[in-house]
């Protein structure tokens, strides 16, 4: 029985303890929990045998750092993860409480189980296993774990930009993505970027009786609807001038590989999404639409009367939460400027409309021929069996762009989530076999790189 097998129960108990801490980064009332979650993982890193383990304080939620640099001449990996989680609502849709982890059918259910405490813990336990059994690692590692990923990662971005010498590494490793299917070793080689913000629309100076003034008064909610329809047509084409100019189409080789992925569109639509029909740009395949094309989505509209019953009012103002997902080679600043210009151009008369960005992140794309990706592919294949597939993901991990831009290093996205993990939704779970195999795959990866 090896160390990983002998300690599997203890690993699970450790993860449960971490998952019990409601480290919701967006909620100010959870600030003490955020700190507890950071301290918990810093202590784990210290106990694993890493050096200089501790919190990096600054503005915002603390970063957690640790290192082991005892293999001169060998490569250095920068392990990244996030200890913050999304809010758990709607609470009544959870089968067990979000911060009381429960095991059912070989899955651990809790907010953060897969995104990203369970996956970050994989990195920690892989290193612990090697250090406890051998007293050393085959290569050098640094850990940088943040508590603001789910709110845009502003402060870690500033840290990486400001202190690149503290983070010198040859590649970053991130376990915060999904495998394409259970048992299918997967590496993610592309993530979308994002611009998230608010569209604020103002009409009259105060709410108006809709009978007395209807027919003459500007309506900000109607204006939001008109603006949205002018920005994206019924086939999902984004109509923002210049917006898609920098979009790079996937190569024929990549598209052909996507076409070979084992995929059942009907199951995806019915089971995974529960949707009647898939929509979006008809001239692009599904994988192109979710991995290699930009989007414009509305997340919520606030304004007017939404209570029970009826109230005849024309609201004075309204607000929409919007995001654009970006793909290589789009740039968040440029896309924001293009959106602002487009909003100004299509804004109906009688109202003002202003888009203000809340956070942004660049898209990322790595070449699978990179030696760090190749080594990861072979470690994944060894542990999971079969050949590793390369996919992209439509989600965003903001720091990946900073690692590329400020540290000049590629990110190896070695994720162990599954498509039905319910990220950001009720009943988030992490598949326990992936937790345990993930630990072995990361440990194996270090050995492959050390050879
Ligand atoms: N881990 C996810 C991103 C992800 C999910 C990548 C699934 C690949 C597959 C990450 O925690 C996340 O949710 N990111 C946010 C970023 C945003 C808040 C800046 C996202 O994508 O919405
Ligand atoms: Mn995540
Ligand atoms: Mn997330």
Question: What features would you describe in this structure?
Answer:
By secondary structure, the protein is α+β, with helices and mostly antiparallel strands. The chain folds into two domains: 3-191 and 363-450, Zn peptidases (Aminopeptidase), CATH 3.40.630; 193-247 and 294-361, Alpha-Beta Plaits. It is 34% helix and 22% strand. The protein has 13 helices and 18 strands. It has helices at 3-6, 8-19, 31-48, 117-134, 154-162, 220-231, 252-259, 265-273, 286-292, 332-346, 371-384, 399-407, 432-450, and strands spanning 51-56, 63-68, 76-82, 102-104, 107-109, 140-146, 171-174, 186-191, 193-202, 208-209, 295-303, 313-314, 317-326, 352-361, 364-365, 389-393, 411-413, 429-431. The strands form five sheets. The chain has a six-stranded mixed β-sheet. Helix 2 runs antiparallel to helix 4, helix 3 (31-48) runs parallel beside helix 4 and helix 4 (117-134) crosses helix 13 (432-450). The longest helix is centred in the C-terminal third of the chain and has 19 residues, at 432-450. The two termini are 24 Å apart. One manganese (II) ion is lined by residues 82, 115-116, 149, 176. Ligand BES binds at residues 115-116, 149-150, 152, 176-178, 194, 359, 361, 393, 395-398, 423.
Question: Could you give the topology of this structure?
Answer:
Elements: H1 3-6, H2 8-19, H3 31-48, E1 51-56, E2 63-68, E3 76-82, E4 102-104, E5 107-109, H4 117-134, E6 140-146, H5 154-162, E7 171-174, E8 186-191, E9 193-202, E10 208-209, H6 220-231, H7 252-259, H8 265-273, H9 286-292, E11 295-303, E12 313-314, E13 317-326, H10 332-346, E14 352-361, E15 364-365, H11 371-384, E16 389-393, H12 399-407, E17 411-413, E18 429-431, H13 432-450
Parallel strand pairs: 3-6, 3-7, 7-17, 8-16
Antiparallel strand pairs: 1-2, 2-6, 4-5, 5-18, 8-15, 9-13, 9-14, 10-12, 11-13
Helix pairs in contact: 2-4, 3-4, 4-13, 5-12, 11-13
This protein binds ligand BES and manganese (II) ion (MN) (2 copies).
């Amino acid at each position: 029985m090896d160390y990983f097998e002998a300690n599997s129960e203890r690993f699970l108990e450790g993860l449960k303890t971490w998952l019990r801490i409601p480290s919701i980064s967006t909620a100010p009332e959870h600030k003490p929990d955020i700190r507890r979650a950071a301290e918990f993982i810093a202590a784990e890193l210290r106990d694993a045998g890493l050096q200089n383990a501790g919190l990096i304080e600054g503005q915002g939620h603390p970063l957690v750092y640790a290192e082991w640099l005892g293999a001169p001449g060998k490569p250095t990996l920068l392990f990244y993860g996030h200890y913050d989680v999304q809010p758990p609502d709607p609470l009544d849709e959870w089968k067990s409480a979000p911060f009381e982890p429960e095991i059912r059918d070989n899955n651990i259910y809790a907010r953060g189980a897969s995104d990203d405490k369970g996956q970050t813990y994989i990195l920690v336990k892989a290193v612990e296993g090697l250090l406890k059994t051998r007293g050393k690692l085959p290569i050098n590692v640094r850990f940088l774990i943040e508590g603001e990923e789910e709110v845009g990662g502003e402060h870690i971005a500033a840290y990486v930009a400001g202190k690149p010498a503290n983070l010198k590494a040859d590649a970053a490793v991130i376990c915060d993505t999904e495998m394409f299917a259970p048992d299918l070793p997967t590496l993610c080689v592309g993530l979308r970027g994002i611009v998230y913000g608010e569209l604020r629309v103002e009409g009259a100076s105060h709410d108006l009786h809709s009978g007395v003034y209807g027919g003459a008064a500007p309506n900000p909610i109607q204006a939001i609807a008109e603006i949205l329809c002018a920005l994206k047509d019924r086939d999902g084409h984004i109509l923002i001038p210049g917006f898609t100019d920098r979009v790079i189409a996937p190569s024929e080789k990549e598209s052909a590989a996507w076409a070979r992925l084992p995929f059942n569109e009907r199951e995806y639509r019915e089971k995974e999404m529960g949707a009647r029909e898939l929509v979006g740009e008809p001239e692009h395949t599904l994988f192109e639409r979710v991995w290699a094309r930009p989007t414009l989505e509305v997340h919520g509209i606030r304004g007017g009367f939404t209570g029970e019953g009826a109230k005849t009012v024309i609201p004075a103002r309204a607000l929409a939460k919007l995001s654009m997902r970006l793909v290589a080679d789009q740039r968040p600043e440029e896309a924001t400027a293009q959106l602002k210009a487009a909003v100004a151009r299509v804004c109906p008369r009688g109202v003002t409309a202003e888009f203000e960005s809340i956070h942004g992140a660049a898209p990322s794309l790595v070449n699978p021929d990179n030696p760090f990706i190749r080594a990861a592919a072979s470690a994944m294949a060894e542990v999971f069996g079969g050949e590793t597939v390369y996919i992209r993901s439509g989600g965003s991990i903001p720091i990946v762009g900073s690692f590329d831009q400020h540290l000049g290093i590629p990110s190896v996205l070695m994720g162990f989530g599954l498509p039905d993990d319910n990220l950001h939704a009720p009943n988030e779970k992490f598949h326990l076999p992936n937790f345990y195999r993930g630990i072995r795959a990361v440990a194996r990866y270090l050995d492959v790189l050390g050879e």
